[in-house]
């Protein structure tokens, strides 16, 4: 991870955060599927970043979003869980021998099928944690489950579109 | 001892994870208690400013709608005023002090609003500097909107009616039967009218207004129209009434704030008699 990569990742996360705050705040497809596009920034961070710094990044990012969304703690809790599970899941879902150390798990690098099997469960867990925190004691369990499922699906589609449109094949950004 | 430390070092990632989650959950709980002081929210200057910039751009496109609504309201207020004006041939009576105005009104602009979560809040561009206090009621020309939760210098955050923790005292206009309005976290255009006993004849289309029993809203502000009446499945002594909100929460630009100048007195009276005051 050199300084150039660091800056480009920082820039990416900043842009995604702004998009999330400015455009995706009140967007919910059929009032049901939310887009958590900023998770793309966490998803494609290279596997060289260990759990602890990743969790701290996720915690700060979730907290900033929470302050803007007036959902204090919910994005924070879900994003921390997301960051905790990401390295574990990446290790479990990677092919035998593991990914190349410096490789980033983005669409261009690991391919379509593997990207979906890597990203979707993580996004689903994130959405589930978020909606459980949001609907605590009010919504029914199946409502939470279907909201989480469709949100994860919608977010996955958003991340695919963004990567197809804006990411070059060779480098991450 | 060394082995314990070694073990703790090995699970350090998990320990940090547990700590951060604990912190996040503490924040959720602290923020959701209505009386609890919220430290971080959009009434913060920096966040408020950013949200206001966004609202500046977005609300520019709905200026025409906002204008039309204001003109309409102006017209109806003019009419009201005409009706209230003292005729020159009549003699004004000194009114009893109990009838003096106990409500004060202010206007504010909405800079942020959410309706997709189960705890929704509004951010208003008026704060302590303009005399906004926690507990004031929020409404607009269409109907009720919410209640102020916390205030900073220039901004304030209010519970939306679309917040499952907000209860508003309401009544059915035609029959004067009262109950409480609460959102169930589902459809963002409907709320539930609770605690209406079963013998009451409530019909679809009846108007629901604020009761004025609480100290926050004056009597008679519009809440909505009854869209469905059923027997409550959980407690068959009561009806489950669904009310269609008259306020369009997806298009809030300007709101009014109302303060009961006798709120302190009423509230302390409630406290003395150990009553839980709903809003």
Oligomer: heterodimer
What is the tally of beta strands of chain A? 2
Question: CATH homologous superfamily of chain B, by name?
Answer: Rod shape-determining protein MreC, domain 2
Shape of chain A: globular
Helix content of chain B: 25-40%
Structural class of chain A: mainly alpha
- Give the end-to-end Cα distance of chain B, rounded to a whole number of Å: 56 Å
User: Which residue ranges of chain A are poorly predicted, with pLDDT under 50 across at least 5 consecutive positions?
Assistant: none
Please give the order of strands in the largest beta sheet of chain A: 1-2
Parts with pLDDT < 50 across at least 5 consecutive residues of chain B = none
Q: Radius of gyration of chain A, Cα only, in angstroms?
A: 15 Å
End-to-end separation of chain A: 14 Å
The structure class of chain B reads: alpha+beta
Beta-strand proportion of chain B: 25-35%
> Which percent bin holds the helix content of chain A?
55-70%
The count of strands of chain B amounts to 12
Query: Helical stretch count of chain A?
Result: 7
Describe the model.
- The complex is a heterodimer of chains A (173) and B (279).
- Chain A has 7 helices and 2 strands, in the order H-E-E-H-H-H-H-H-H.
- Chain A is mostly helical.
- In chain A, a hairpin with a 3-residue loop joins strand 1 (28-29) and strand 2 (33-34).
- Chain B has helices at residues 2-10, 12-32, 45-60, 63-84, 263-272, and strands at residues 103-113, 119-124, 137-139, 144-151, 156-163, 168-172, 178-182, 190-197, 207-210, 222-231, 238-245, 254-260.
- Chain B is 28% helix and 30% strand.
- Chain B is globular and about 95 Å long.
- Chain B has a single domain (14-81, 103-279), classed as Thrombin, subunit H (Beta Barrel).
- In chain B, a hairpin with a 4-residue loop joins strand 4 and strand 5 (156-163).
- The chains are: A mainly alpha (173), B alpha+beta (279).
- Chains A and B meet through helix 3 and helix 4 of A and helix 2, helix 3 and strand 2 of B.
């Amino acid at each position: 991870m050199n300084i150039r990569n660091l800056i480009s990742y920082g820039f990416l996360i900043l842009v995604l955060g702004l998009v999330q705050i400015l455009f995706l705040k009140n967007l919910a497809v059929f009032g049901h599927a939310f887009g958590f596009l900023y998770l793309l920034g966490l998803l494609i961070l290279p596997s060289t970043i260990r759990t602890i710094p990743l969790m701290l990044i996720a915690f700060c990012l979730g907290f900033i979003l929470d302050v803007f969304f007036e959902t204090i703690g919910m994005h924070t809790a879900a994003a921390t869980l997301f960051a905790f599970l990401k390295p574990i899941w990446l290790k479990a879902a990677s092919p035998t021998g593991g990914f190349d150390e410096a490789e980033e798990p983005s669409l261009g690098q690991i391919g379509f099928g593997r990207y979906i099997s890597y990203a979707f469960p993580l996004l689903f867990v994130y959405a589930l944690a978020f909606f459980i925190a949001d609907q605590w004691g009010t919504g029914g369990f199946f409502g939470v489950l279907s909201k989480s499922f469709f949100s994860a699906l919608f977010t996955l589609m958003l991340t695919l579109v963004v990567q197809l449109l804006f990411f070059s094949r060779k480098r991450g950004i | 001892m060394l082995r314990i430390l070694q073990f703790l070092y090995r699970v350090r990632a998990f320990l940090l994870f547990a700590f951060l989650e604990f912190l996040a959950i503490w924040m959720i709980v602290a923020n959701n208690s209505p009386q609890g002081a919220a430290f971080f929210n959009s009434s913060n200057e920096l966040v408020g400013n950013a949200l206001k910039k966004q609202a500046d751009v977005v609300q520019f496109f709905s200026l025409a709608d906002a204008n039309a609504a204001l003109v309409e309201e102006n017209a109806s207020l003019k009419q009201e005023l005409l009706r209230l004006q003292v005729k020159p041939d009549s003699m004004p009576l000194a009114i009893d002090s109990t009838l003096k105005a106990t409500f004060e009104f202010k206007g504010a602009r909405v800079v942020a609003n959410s309706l997709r979560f189960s705890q929704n809040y509004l951010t208003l561009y008026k704060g302590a500097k303009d005399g906004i206090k926690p507990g004031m009621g929020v409404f607009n020309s269409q109907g009720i909107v919410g209640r102020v939760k916390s205030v900073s210098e220039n901004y304030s955050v209010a519970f939306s009616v679309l917040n499952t923790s907000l209860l508003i005292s309401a009544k059915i206009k035609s029959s004067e039967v009262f109950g409480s309005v609460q959102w169930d976290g589902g459809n963002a255009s409907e709320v539930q009218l609770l605690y209406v006993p079963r013998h009451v004849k409530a019909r679809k289309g009846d108007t629901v207004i604020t009761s004025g029993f609480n100290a926050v809203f004056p009597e008679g502000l519009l809440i909505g129209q009854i869209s469905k009446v059923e027997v409550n499945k959980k407690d068959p002594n009561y009806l489950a009434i669904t009310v269609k909100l008259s306020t369009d929460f997806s298009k809030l630009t300007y709101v009014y704030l109302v303060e009961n100048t006798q709120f302190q007195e009423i509230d302390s009276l409630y406290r003395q008699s150990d009553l839980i005051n709903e809003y």
